[in-house]
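A note from the maintainers: we've had questions about how concatenated examples are separated. There is no special marker in the raw files; a new sequence line simply starts the next protein. For clarity in this README we add a label.
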Amino acid sequence: MDRNYLRKSAIETILQILKIADAQSKKYNEIEDISATEILQRDVINKYEALYLALCETDFENLDEKEIENINITLEEIREKHNLTKDFIDSQISLRENLGDNSGAKVIENLFRYELSKLLEKKQILLEKINKVLDKELELENKLKDTIQEADQFDIIYELNPIRIEFRDLEEKLHKLENEIKPLKHKLDTRWAYEIYGTINKETLMEIYKTNFNLGE
């Protein structure tokens, strides 16, 4: 068996499963079905994400014949379980190779990278603000330690209160930013979240985006 073909077929099969699961996850999110989303993430997405990464890192040329046979058998079982025919997978491999950098995968990857860069910029600005607030808080706390008069102490405590409120507010904003940054980094690290668009050309993908988000009107 052609090992290079087997590798492509295995990876494409897993990408198609992840593509279907990703679409289903978005539907669950739209109707706010948290339980279904969590189950799908745990039982399907996490499982096939790990398999996808393992396949990408596997050197098929160094596998023995028994290992190749086992992969082929497992692959057939997976395709059957998810109603994916070999002909369909072959057609998707061909599409992916023909489209290359003109595929939607590149568009989505660039979009993820752009979104991440903007979030990281916001994070940097936020961290600078936090550092300034912490410096001001430290300055007032040191001043409080050196102040003997009770009236002066109350004045400093009065100044400290809004500083601490501002810090908690900035800390909350930082936490929210981190919750946006983390999944984007994960998508870029694991790759499949944009590679699932590798069988659609970028022009078609952009048209879908314009339709869904009313762009260009």
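[label: protein 2]
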Amino acid sequence: MTPVIKIKTLLEVLRAMKASELQNIFIDELKVLLPDWRFVKSQRQFKRVEEGVVWLFHINCINHLDDFDAVADVAVEFKSGKENICIVGAELGNIEGVGQKRFSVTSATEAKSSAERMLCYFKAHGMPFLRKYSNPVDVISTLKQGGKEAMLISPLLNQHPEQINRLTNFYGVSI
């Protein structure tokens, strides 16, 4: 039995290059729109230190043949030096309650307008999430209550007790 080797056509290679170029334009536009955030290229995320926590705005690209869709999630990371105390986060559409929110990019012009639309959506849904869950008391309370909101911010139910303990011990919070 001979192995099947898939060879990309020149058109497929050019299309893949086009999608990556569109992704670069999209990310470059977000960099302009988020001047107070540091972009970490290796993780495709924007990072900002805010009152003892780290805010993360992460971008994912879902590639198609000629274009891509961008999706984003946000997270709050509680740290002590380099030690990670707890991290909670969610995808922007899930925060709103509508499921995954995609921003289509099919051209350079659309890359810029999609970046602007994503930023507006981030400001409407991601920023309130980041502000609320930067307070360890809100995180502990939400995780202790359980339910839909707890699963939104931390989908691995078996980690909730450890997250509660770490935050409670580190911040000296009792609820």
